[in-house]
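Table S7 (text form). Paired inputs.
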Amino acid sequence: MKATIERATLLRCLSHVQSVVERRNTIPILSNVLIEAEGDGLRVMATDLDLQVVEHMEASVESDGSVTVSAHLLFDIARKLPDGSQVSLETADNRMAIKAGRSRFSLPTLPRDDFPVIVEGDLPTSFELPAKTLAEMIDRTRFAISTEETRYYLNGIFLHVSDEDQPVLKAAATDGHRLARFTLARPDGAEGMPDVIVPRKAVAELRKLLEEKMDANVQIDLSASKIRFTLGGEGGMVLTSKLIDGTFPDYSRVIPTGNDKLLKIDPRTFHEGVDRVATIATEKTRAVKMGLDKDKVTLTVTSPDNGTATEELSAEYGAEGFEIGFNAGYLKDILGQIDSDTVEIHLADAGAPTLIRKDDDSPALYVLMPMRV
């Protein structure tokens, strides 16, 4: 194999694929990327056996061929090569020679035939979403993904369709303490799709890839066990992931419908207030107490080691006064998702889940479980 490629193109492509590769691998070839030269470009692939990213890049190919080489090493080399340089890649005798300007590198390679590829099988459900919509769906939900490995079925975003007033596609994530849900009109082709859980790592890698393709559409193909995202059409980037084999809980049961106490407040002011009083909170006392009275909220944090902090915020509130506690970090995470001048917080009592959203029409909805304070 012999090819020449612009350093910027190589670097951009490697930055996409190398983050899939785990730093520590018991199987040596999983530390490598597969590079295939054919026609007028290179095809680069990385995998961790659960997730696979493939990208095409333009290059001038002198001779076809394929090889695998260390992902992180090649990325680090590309990063340090001079701007604007042309990079020559050539393989011979289980080595890859890399030349750019006056720099020369020779890296060990492993045979292409040993490189594992995820077999997609049949992906019967197929639809498109604008990249912007997909990115918003991820941003509004992924912070609530659980990191507890024992509850592996919560370690991703749950995608499912349902027929309500009109057909919708919903994305949900929860860690048992908070729930985030995003709803959009069901795209053409998504009817009858199986309920799927997209793993946290696949979500993170997809969100990174979307950053450069915000004006395009993303093709999504899936079955009950695999999902594939194609960005940039033919010759673009393709991310394929296994899905989490588990059953996501019926989260709709925890979304409160009868919360009759409504608090309206500026989310930024509220976020900053919670952040300030939480300064003295410790790991054990992450709770912030909200005292609700007519048109005001009093935030209090008490820590046996660090003393107390209080702050009063003006708000719209007309129901009877009471006190409720929340985990300050979880509350801030949710408030950080609300990009408007007011947020609606629907409360019932000190022990009941609380509903938080921008307004009735908002596609995003959040539920937060209270804490004892």
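Next pair, protein 2 of 2.
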Amino acid sequence: MSSFRKDPFGEAWVLMSPERGLQPSDFGSASHPPGTSPLVPGRERGLPGEIQALRASSSQANAPDWRARVLPMPGTPFSQRPFRESSAGLYVSGTASGYQELIVEHPDPAMTLEAMPREHMSDLLRLYRDRLAFLAERPGVRHVQLTRNVGRAAGALYDHPHAQVLALPVTNRWVEEEAASASAHHREHGRCLFCDVVSAETASRERVVTSNASFVAIAPWASKTPFETWILPREHQSAFSSLASNRLEALGDILQTVLHAFGVALDHPPYNMILHTRPTPSDATYHWHIEMLPRLTRQAGFDWGSGYYVNPTPPEDAARFLREAAALAEVAS
């Protein structure tokens, strides 16, 4: 059975899932020939029953006339058993409790996030928000996340546009590291670290990729990978679940602008989209954000051995290239 194991040398938890085994997505995406996506309308019987869907009010659950749908993740290693933590000497483990959902984002398997109509994009972001808010209220949940993996090098499970939502009883190493830095900054200065970064970046604009009235996209100062881009709300919010409905269109616009820029500047690279958020809006020091990571390089021995990321593209250059690409994409559209 799957279980969590706590790293005795740090704050990370590792999921041990021996029954899962190695799958095609461990070596890249599980590519399906054209017309054979298992997620298209008409193939609902081969999948778990839907949890929620965007469909007409007259439509039946699991019928093929949906616009987007939420399913239990096929083959998930997580169960809804109560989380139990145990220790054996130096080592701590816990039951593989949690929730994992698959969001099928569009009926068309060839659709991309950047090409979705604006109304559909807003509805999809609302679906993301509402699923995260619902799962955050489940007993024992300490971490929620949303991820999109696009392309073979990004480890996509399907070629069909999709996202995954996860809610777990253990914390996330990366979010906790950010939160610790943000908390220390708040204690020293009385302000949100993320808000200060937004203010500094919008003032200098050297690393700003694009922005609108509600959001700013930047190439972070210490970008881990080439063309890494963060999207942050200008207004302080610790949880994505608190995002107002009248901000969904602006978020969709800036997401699509960044992805269009990736397409022009980087020839539609594989990428990961990762939402960092608190489960509930109760943290005055944390600030949710979306990290967009084009997969252009691989970590080598130096990276693994030193713990450093090696980035051959300074964020100032990346931001300039992406700004120019965004302008070209806007002209082309």
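The chain has one domain: 97-333.
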